[in-house]
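[scheduler] slot 2 assigned
[scheduler] job type: sequence-to-structure, two independent chains
[scheduler] chain ordering preserved from manifest
[runner] begin chain α
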Amino acid sequence: MRRILSIGLAFLFVAVCGATQPAKNTSYDAILRHGTILDGTGLKPYKADVGIRNGYIAEIGDLSGRNSALDLDVTGLFVAPGFINIHSHADSAALPTAENMLTQGVTTEILNPDGGGSNDIAQQLSRSASAGLAVNIGAYIGFNSVWAAVVGQADRRPTQEEITQMRALIERNLRQGAWGVSAGLDYKPGYFARTDEVIKVVSVAAPWRTNFPNHERVAPETNFSSRAGITETIKIGGDAGLVPVITHMKVQGHEQGSAAEVINLMNWASAAGHYTAADVYPYLAGQTGLGALTVPAWAQDGGRPEMLQRFKNPELRSRIAKEIEEALNARFGGADGVYLPQTEQQLVDIMRDRNAPAGETVIHILEQGNASAILRFGREDDLVKILQNPLTAIACDCGASLETRISAASIAFHPRFYGTFPRVLGHYVRETHALTWEDAVRKMTGLAASTVGIVDRGFLVPGMLADVTVFDPNTVIDHATYQNPALPSEGIRYVLVNGRLALTDGKPTGERAGRSILRSAHMPTRPMSLNSARRVSLAGAAAASNAKVWISLNLHQDAGASSATGSFRLNDPRTGTTIQATKIGLLQTAAKWASFTGRARVLSGGEERSITVIVDLADPLAAAGAATISVDVEGVYHVDASVEARRIKL
């Protein structure tokens, strides 16, 4: 009887699919007309109109004859998904405006990179959103913060009980919606954790199939080797059951010129079954605390007060100064590679004025207070190779900021805070042709979404949330410099966040349409799957809240196609709801997992709405042998239903 019903549902859907397309007079909240679409997949651009309704992409095609409340002629402009910054140091006070991010085309920021941030992300996101959000925000749970909360600032070994406590903190935040477990093993106190200890702590996240972005540890014990640090990141991710992400990837010091070898490390790991990703910003210098990566770890043991006491000991001071110089020479090309933005001075100028060597000068500066530094580290040919690596997303290592001048407390004075994404588009696409338009946008959108696990943003296809960036390919460029880091970029013309206009003609509108976004247990980190054909099918009953819903699903997407074909229908007798797909967007697949967005007719009410469906055969919270089908219709209908995994064809 079940088989007959399943076949009947599938037949009914196929018979009516395509008969429920919107009428010609359909109205939209917004239409972007005559633009060139770069949909985030990396496929070739094409010309079309984009219709938006209720904060979602409703239709892409010829929308002549349709009307809308907001009608934008974007002839000659590129229309892309909103850019996703997966490495954000946003100032929460700046999130209601986020002008420096909107003018870069960014619509979503993932907070707490480098292992930092709150150990209670639910509270953090709530507070950050309390005054409204100009962009969407999510958050990692930071390994360094967890380590500091349990073990402290000292270089000591954690007890088994402390490891258990740290694992519990990470799992609690994953349940709250964290988008991965970030780390900054180059920073103290995370630096003090041994590789096996990191694995023991973060492996609690393995069932969640998430990612481990790490600022790699570049240590004197490895002769300050970037490759050794990247190898450690890959090992931690692989052994812990997480996807390692080489965050703000770079090749430093004496290893400059070996980017191809470092990329091969990623490729070998992926070929061995441990998918490895990366992110990068388009600059050859970074910014952090002057002492963070120069003062030796033993001198920072216990935190800043203990470090200052060691500075007072003449014997220790001499040793520290010597090791600072070794780090400067090995990582940043010596003192010439250090610029202090707060005083607008090169370190070598301060050395000359004080008639003191580099190590002693750094100690003197740190005794006066914490200082930020611009640290030069790399070569252009390495950067280009990393940018071109197919597994490298673009992320700015920046975030929403109110800074328009350099202040003593500022960490936001690197040009990346105002220029990253337009610099990639203007310089590395239009001017040097290092990347194509479609691949650059893919690295800012679809690849970034896949890297952290987002399923309903990152692509410009029906059913996705309407985060949209419109830019002029002829003018988009950065202007920020190390001397003038707050100069806005140009060429980003319009930005929509959840369907509302946040930037027009390059100027913020004041809209606060951003949302806090949370990762569910059904959103794994995954490689993009466009290069192979994929399908998913299911028919019959699924259990939901001690009742049954009926689902018929049969989708297929060819390799290189931008959307799927097939059918979806759900009947929920509990609520009298029948949902029938009218347009299918992108089908994404990974091991034991699939997801698609699209448009569907909610037959009980008759209105067409956007739909997101996830099929998860590896749900960490499900019973053994069970799969979860998650269906969401614009937040007005949601169900998580359970079926036997063997009934699903992937």
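[runner] end chain α
[runner] begin chain β
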Amino acid sequence: MGSQYYLTTPIYYVNDEPHLGHAYTTVAADALARYMRLRGEDVFFLTGTDEHGQKVERAARERGERPIELADRMVDRFKALWRRLGISNDDFIRTTEDRHKRATQLFFQKIYERGDIYKGTYEGWYCTPCETFIPETQMEEGNICPDCGRPTERLKEESYFFRMSKYQGALLDHIEKHPDFIQPITRRNEIVSFVERGLKDLSISRTSFSWGIPVPGDPRHVMYVWVDALANYITAAGYGQDPERFARYWPANLHLIGKDILRFHAVYWPTLLMAADLQIPEKVFGHGWWTVEGRKMSKSVRNVVEPNRLMDEFGVDAFRYFLLREVPFGLDGDFSRAALIGRINGDLANDLGNLFSRVLAMVDRYQKGMLAGPKEPSGPLSSGAREMTEEVRRLMMEGMAFHRALGRIWDFIGEMNRFVDEKAPWVLSRDKERKGELEGVLNDLGEGLRVVALHLAAFMPGTAKAMWSQLGLPGTPEEQVGEDLWRWGVQQGVREIRKGEALFPRIEKEVAQVGGGSPAPAAEKSGSAGSVKEGALKISIDEFARLDLRVAKVLSADSITGSKKLIKLEVDLGGERRTLLAGIAQTHKPQDLVGKKVIVVANLQPAKLMGIESQGMVLAAVADEKNIVLVVPEGDIPPGTRVK
């Protein structure tokens, strides 16, 4: 086994119905946990529920029930959703558990004994929905919370305060010395700016309600819900109760959270840990939010995306794949039915599903259903598999770039599809003298599919298990842990395949609108060349950042038989070779393009045109069909350079 790795999601608030955002964070954490276990790491993956606070107490009272009854009911919903999504958490913590009460009171007492907690009076504004104290300088007009847009309340009550201001310099110093502590870098910059404006002492207890953990020695006070909630991470690691376990897993390697709660995890939590003389987690990663077809999710407009409904319609693994493939992790993303269906029909049904069924059908037909390991360790697909395996490892374990990792897996799937077309096993089967070559081709394809299934076990565990079984491999991918598992050709011996149902049938017809909301307005047709319509759709800087624009050098260019508009380009993207189709044949000759540098959209979803997969898009200014000008960089810019 490898080293210990402690991974957490936030503990989810029981006053909220489980929604797309909850699923996103937890699926991402699960994919990372599964991947690291496959690599032989000792992973401890924690999730759970935050159950205390004034908001829960009020909501329970309005329903005529006790707070714990509301919490029990909502916990069941979260647990049911995690089971359905295949979440592989090692622990599920509830802040109402006795173990958490003991650990949190010990944590509070230790900070108090060091002189960093004192009693005073809090007077100011408080947002109950956000469970946050709001400085008057940050208040919106009308005493509105700047975060959620709802009214705040004026409070004046006795309170214990944490000397957070004392740790301002220490926190800034830690961030400077550990540049990866807060990720992505935009979130790091936000926190640095916030801390540099000056930290105030933090009110950390309340007396106006009782649903919470009592302050040790002063039970009239209950702890501020964020002290209670954040302490769950050390509770689950064994703080004050299991020293051996705590030494093994603390500090946490990663807190994976939504960006809306970044301040609590990147300011309050590390300063509290400093005061308790405990180590700070290695990394806090704040990912973006999801909108729905360009609109913020809201119950009032009936567009809240409910994960169970999506899984009912499209399946668990298709939902998991879409969440992690569609959006660069860390940025905001937009959910749309069209995008989800496009991913299912294009990536899953066409690229992966069709390849898998074709290969198994040929093994069944030409080799009587028998498949063996590759004959040579350096077969035609082996180098592509090795390169993909190493790059996915780097993307997953260093950057949590889930969308890029999946994109790299799909690059290899595309390589396998091209290999099938180039080798044409159906042609080889007609020549008895080439039987050995046919066997080599099919066995290489079988090994390639094994490697793909192994990688997909982190992202789509059900699909990976089905592929593993149909390939005639023993057990499941999760049972074959270790570095050797990732080597090309490790699976030797003859085995019998077990053909099953299609992995991802195509979606041929529209299905009901998810969430019941109205679809976003269709985009207007563009006006005349050079015009910009008043009121045209504006995008944020984060949305623009989702475009991966890069310099590419044209290596070759060819006309396409049967097309008057398209030219096939082979381009260099800085060590990566891609095929692009560009609709510029009426204004450009192929031979004039070779050696030219162009700008391409490198993270565009691949599309097939004239039977050829285009892996990006060339940028051009288009006045009309006879006036198309390519966008080209000035100066000697190397291929692969990012355009910002």
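[runner] end chain β
[qc] chain β: The domain at 547-643 is CATH 2.40.50.140 (OB fold (Dihydrolipoamide Acetyltransferase, E2P)).
[scheduler] slot 2 released
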